[in-house]
């Protein structure tokens, strides 16, 4: 019988516990539910949600009752010390995530499912990576598409040369907030490009001069245009087009998700390389990315293998976005990665 790991939730807000209420009435709800960390831990047969915490006592108690969890806390440190969980789900506001991740890694937690964005600066990201690596923690990032069989099938087709050499990857995610929303776009660009290193990025953001306070940007800016040059030669683009939809263009074909991943258009070159003919996209199971991300941590703990969304890739995709912000700050220049300005801080007041 498979081991059932003890899990605790830190942060009982929207992504931690209640986003399911927003999604359940949508026509694409079957793609996402269970969505929140709490709902996914309860639904996953590999985890037992033993406690939740939130700085607001009423919220912690409400979520404890909602998910029939034995205990709740207002201090996550007390919860970790008393419950000694195997897995911690971190779904707080971004400003505290680095501190919390480092604490739980240092205090015996074996696996972390961390909500996006990762943190607010590359200095914080570096410290998180250092702690996770030092203590051998299995960390998955909350960019759910990476764990879904639908998107993993797309990557499988790419890796098996079904569309030829990949030339570019395109995200139509709109002029969304960089860290709050476009973390999903950045992760998918990285994933569909093969998870390579990044040579440089360029970007244009939407903000006001008064949003800058020295090396801190006191807003989460929209990104009007974003370009990524991957080390394997693939070009990456985030556009103002809405969706969210993602396209991968190769020398022999194209893959494009439609309607936020409800379907995928798969086209391949026929007799003429200029004429692409539509072919069926393979049938795949539809499993929620949050459950699959947490289940992947459990399976990694079982065997010692690497997880599917490790913190090193989370740092890389976040740095793509931070680099675009830095590019705008410097007048639109190319910003090589790793960034030199690792203390650049991006975050709304109250984060």
Short description:
The chain is of the alpha/beta class and 351 residues long. The chain has 11 helices and 18 strands.
SSE blueprint and pairings:
Layout: E1 5-10, H1 14-23, H2 29-32, H3 37-43, E2 47-53, H4 57-66, E3 71-73, H5 76-83, E4 87-90, H6 97-106, E5 111-114, H7 122-135, E6 138-141, H8 149-159, E7 166-172, H9 183-192, E8 198-206, E9 212-213, E10 216-217, E11 222-230, E12 235-239, E13 245-250, E14 253-258, E15 263-269, E16 276-279, H10 289-303, H11 311-329, E17 335-336, E18 345-346
Helix pairs in contact: 6-7, 7-11, 9-11
Key features of this structure:
six-stranded parallel beta sheet; Dihydrodipicolinate Reductase, domain 2; 2 domains; alpha/beta; 351 residues; 11 helices; 34% helix; globular; 18 strands; Rossmann fold; nine-stranded mixed beta sheet; single chain
